[in-house]
Q: What sequence folds into this?
């Protein structure tokens, strides 16, 4: 018996003595890089969604305002402006962020699709001797 990548014991019949060829190693490395990028994409997307929620909250607060002047934060500076201008700015920022989120969603789909193809190939070659699942 030997230990699989997930820490579970493989029986003798589950073991696969297939030699790791260069193309197999390249596929494994590609899978690893894709997995790392997938985690980055998901983290970046979650951060953008959080920022969108904050801007949406600010926009809601502006709608509840009394119509007075407000301070709009742009970079490191604050500018006095009307609620309408500030609301328009918030809406524009949400649109920009939503576009970025959509791009990240598309990238995630492409990564998952490519990983699925690599899993199919690698599991066909190595069976239970390789673990490509998240733990």
A:
């Amino acid at each position: 018996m030997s230990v699989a990548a997930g820490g579970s014991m493989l029986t003798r019949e589950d073991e696969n003595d297939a030699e790791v060829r260069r193309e197999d190693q390249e596929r494994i490395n590609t899978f690893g890089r894709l997995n790392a990028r997938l985690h980055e994409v998901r983290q970046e997307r979650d951060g953008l969604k959080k920022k969108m929620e904050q801007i949406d909250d600010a926009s809601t607060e502006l709608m509840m305002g009394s119509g007075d002047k407000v301070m709009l934060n742009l970079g490191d500076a604050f500018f006095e402006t009307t609620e309408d201008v500030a609301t328009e700015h918030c809406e524009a920022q949400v649109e920009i962020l939503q576009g970025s989120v959509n791009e990240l969603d598309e990238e995630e789909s492409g990564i998952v699709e490519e990983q699925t193809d690599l899993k199919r190939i690698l599991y066909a070659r190595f069976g239970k001797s390789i673990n490509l699942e998240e733990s």
User: Anything to note?
Assistant: The radius of gyration is 24 Å.
